[in-house]
Amino acid sequence: MNVIVCVKQIPDPAQPGELDPSTNTLKREGKLILDESDSYGVEMALQLVDKAGEGEVSLISMAPNGEVSGLRTALAMGAAKAVLVSDPDLAGSDALTTAKVLAAAAKKLGDADLIIAATESSDGYTGTVPEQMAEVLGMPSITFAKSVAVEGGTVKVARQTEAGYDEVECPTPALVSVTAGVVEPRYPSFKGIMAAKSKPVEEVTAADLGVTPVGWAGADQQIVDVAQAPAREAGEIIEDEGEAHLKIVEFLEGLKVI
Amino acid sequence: MGIDNIWVFAQETNGAATPATLELLTKARSLGGTVSAFVVGDGNAIASTLGEYGAAKVYSTGDLAGNLPGAAGAAAMKAVIDGGDRPDLIMFPQNYEGRDIVSRLSVKLDRTVLTNNTQVEVDGDSLKVTTPVFGGEQLVTTTFTGEGPFLAAFRPKSFEPAPGDAGAGEVVSAPVPDLGATGGAKVTAVHVEETTGPKLDEAAVVVAGGRGLGQSESFEMVESLAKLLKGAPGASRAIVDAGWVPYSMQVGQTGKVVKPSVYIAAGISGATQHMVGMKGSKNIIAINKDAEAPIFGVADLGIVGDVHKVMPKLIEALQGR
To answer: What's the CATH number where B228 sits?
Structure first.
């Protein structure tokens, strides 16, 4: 079984985010890391391929600057190869363009039984790309999967809902978006990290894939203003020395909650 | 031109229109023009409510027969648009179904989609939407520069719902066309998790726990305190991912947006992902042992201390009342 996983390389979320004042988009300079949300999809794919006993996991990613450090992490976990769409003309692309590009990259890799993506990235969290990709590819999809199994050409998913979960079945090929926590992502071993250095990462441009890069101009949206949100007034912060719970009781009394 | 024709993706739960649906209809009405509701499922049960909140017309696909709403809803909407009713704007709630439908529809219409919005206003023939970023610290305003239909998804509780003075909406059938391969996914069983007490996104008091609780057993403190205050227990993504509590308890970007009058965060550091879901609470109490935790930046009352010491004493004090 062959599985393609969509991965995003993002600025380290531990560092505070910043908008580029000239373009008003998220700054993506410097080292990028594998989005933690995607590590679940990579792990899920590796487990499915392991269970099937044949096939491999491939990665697709899009980044404006040829960045591969996040991809290397996923390769070190056990993915076999990657296609990186790197093209300065893609800077400023909206989610729809991203989906078109990733769909073309998936096609380039060829017949996959399953395409896996996270439900949303940790930096942009638009949350539309997986389902848009499925539509571009004319594929069925199951979103918000909290467990995934593949048996004889059918993918079976427990799909998270507002009220609980649904059991959903779908013939492959299909696209599945997985929630964080679906599996425990493995840590890359030293051997895996060494092996990842020589695994193939094919770098292509949007034009190579036959997608017209649109970037800023074609995004059909323009940021016109960035403003500071009204800040909450600073509250009272106290150190607990054994009696702080009384302060909470007093606060709740003041609000007439108790 | 202008924004004359607005659709709202409308949802039903237990025979009633969801709060998010009524919020969006109320907002749509205020933008002027005609408002229609689009129900992906059977819309008859809620047509009168939808009408009351401003929908002159209620499109109804009828039962989905096991199809997931994403592919089915988008195809049904596209069929109505191709049939001649072309909206200038379609508003979606930022939730599972809204997200799936708007995504597929954006490809069918080849239109961009703006998500996670909290405000919208008409700007000539276009629209401006506002989106909070970085946990709500900054507000980004974006305008659509292409042609409509403009597609936008809004966070729950962005608008105050209020009924108008119109009667029931006229129900118009909008059947799901043949989905081909995209209709391959079928629901085979539905599981509903039992809940007691007030609903998380409607409770006046929410007590939420995070990784600072240390172990899943400690979540009992959160539940006890919530019960004592007649509130609902909630959780950060970290402990939902860790499997301590079900996803239905998650507060934040990927979970519920809550705006209770009191929010108590126990052992929650305040990641961006969490803050966007609770920052609108009227009063915030935070208990965390790390004085540098971002949650203290939004707290009205912050206790720098160990949840395992503060919470039991607090529970005991309240039990004694």
So the answer is: 3.40.50.1220
Could you tell me if B168 and B289 lie in one domain?
A: no
**DSSP secondary structure letter of residue B297:** G
Give the pLDDT confidence of B60-84 residue by residue, as tens digits.
999 999 999 999 999 999 999 999 9
Q: Does residue B19 sit in the same domain as residue B162?
A: yes
pLDDT in tens, A183-234: 889 999 999 999 999 999 999 999 999 988 677 666 788 888 888 888 888 7
Q: What is the pLDDT of residues B187-199, one digit of tens each?
A: 999 998 877 788 8
Model-level ipTM above the cut of 0.85: yes
Quote the number of domains for chain B.
2
- Can you give the pLDDT at residue A212? 82
- The better pLDDT of the pair A90, B228 is held by B228
Q: Distance between CA atoms of B24 and B9, rounded to whole angstroms?
A: 9
Distance CA A221, CA A214 (A): 12
pLDDT band with cut points at 50, 70 and 90 for residue A96: very high
d(CA B121, CA B130): 9
B199 part of a folded domain: no
pLDDT at residue B136 greater than cutoff 90? no
Whether residue B224 sits in one domain with residue B176? no
Distance CA A109, CA A200 (A): 13
Let me know whether B280 and B165 are in one domain.
Answer: no
One domain for residues B30 and B119? yes
Residues B216 and B264 reside in one and the same domain:
yes
Model pLDDT, residue B109:
97
How many angstroms separate the CA of residue B298 from the nearest CA in chain A? Answer: 6
Arithmetic mean of pLDDT, B90-119 = 96
Question: What residues make up the domain containing B67?
Answer: 5-183
Domain holding B112: CATH number?
Answer: 3.40.50.620
CA distance, residue B243 to nearest chain A CA (Å) = 8
Chain A stretch 125-144, residues whose beta carbon is closer than 8 A to a beta carbon of chain B: 125-132, 134-136, 138-144
Homologous superfamily in CATH for domain A3-218: HUPs (3.40.50.620)
A242 contacts B309? CB cut-off 8 A:
yes
Contacts of B254 in chain A (CB under 8 A): 119-120, 125, 179-180
